[in-house]
Amino acid sequence: MNSDLNKLQAYPFQKIRTLLSDAQLPAELAPISLAMGEPKHPTPELIHHAVREHLAGLAHYPLTKGDGALRTAISDWLTRRFQLPANTIDPEQHVLPVNGTREALFALAQTIVDRSAQTQPAVLMPNPFYQIYEGAALLAGAEPVYLSCTADNGFIPDFEAVPAALWQRCQLLYICTPGNPTGAVMSVAQMQRLLNLAEQYDFVVASDECYSELYFDEAQPPAGLLQAAAQMGNHDYKRCLVFHSLSKRSNAPGLRSGFVAGDAAALERFLQYRTYHGCAMSPPFQAASAVAWQDEQHVRENRALYRAKFAAVLDCLQPVMDVQQPDAGFYLWPVTPMDDTAFTRHLFSTQAVQVVPGQYLSRDTATGNPGQQHIRMALVADQAACVSAAERIRAAIETL
Hints:
Layout: H1 12-19, E1 32-33, H2 45-53, H3 68-81, E2 95-98, H4 101-112, E3 122-127, H5 131-139, E4 143-148, H6 164-169, E5 170-176, H7 188-201, E6 204-208, H8 225-231, E7 240-245, H9 246-249, E8 258-262, H10 264-277, H11 283-293, H12 297-317, E9 331-332, H13 340-351, E10 353-354, E11 356-357, E12 375-378, H14 383-398
Parallel strand pairs: 1-10, 3-4, 3-5, 5-6, 6-7
Antiparallel strand pairs: 2-8, 7-8, 9-12, 11-12
Helix pairs in contact: 2-11, 3-11, 4-5, 4-10, 7-8, 12-14, 13-14
């Protein structure tokens, strides 16, 4: 067996099952889960229709590189959404469809990390973080390095505090903007600072932007890494790779459809890796994905649903809890009135509400665990369920 597998920690939901294994649910309350970030709004009919219309594609092996129509739809969407200069995103060189960004975020490290380096490679990532980043680093033979995100730094890592010796070992930097679980959005200036560091120290920036289409102000969508690169004249997107998904944007988590875009040289090697990996997207799903990337109406309607839920839930919780509306995304990251694991058990056993303890999404550092005394709440259920959960959480706090 690969001994690096022994370095992997249990996934957060496995830890939650252990934490709650002996808890007794109140019989009079139906359980409500705010734990898993699985979108629950209906998948748009245009996606269902496109899948049905292209079932004949099941008779053919798909290309790992994806169909040209899908890559063109993605290229056009990126150009529109992030105001990129015309024709700088070439569908042939700068775009690669993937079966959900989770597998691509993991596989990228296996392509980028050079195990033969004279010093141990480092992969830097935010803390708290999406656990795939850590597993990808460990199984690529690199050291995961955790950059704490706290209220004091606006939940954005303090990149200026990273010593030069660590940047010299860095081969890959994962960022997540909007952040999971904090919802913090990085500015163009912050991303450009990272690209300057990447050029200086020779590493790749992988920007997980899966929550970029869930925001509150229609006039101020979150910026993206390609946008930051273009504004500084990096029109070949060197050292930039962005990851986007239809799971959150289009409420289609089962479609397992996303893409990676950016640096053509890195994507050429990534395509080579993926060709051996055997992970081409099904033709009907490629066709449905192209249709989804071409439509914005369903995305605007989706944002409206989230805006209403956040307003109602925050109105209920803010009088009793330190909780703020995030910059974007569908998570809340409130401060808990006691240890986050104890509070998670308390909510489950008294109110039948399930959340994620913040420390399960973070790692201990010399200055503590930045997720401690937080919980992650995913507002993915319908508004009635989310409001009911908020009312129960408020009752649990008021009776402590």
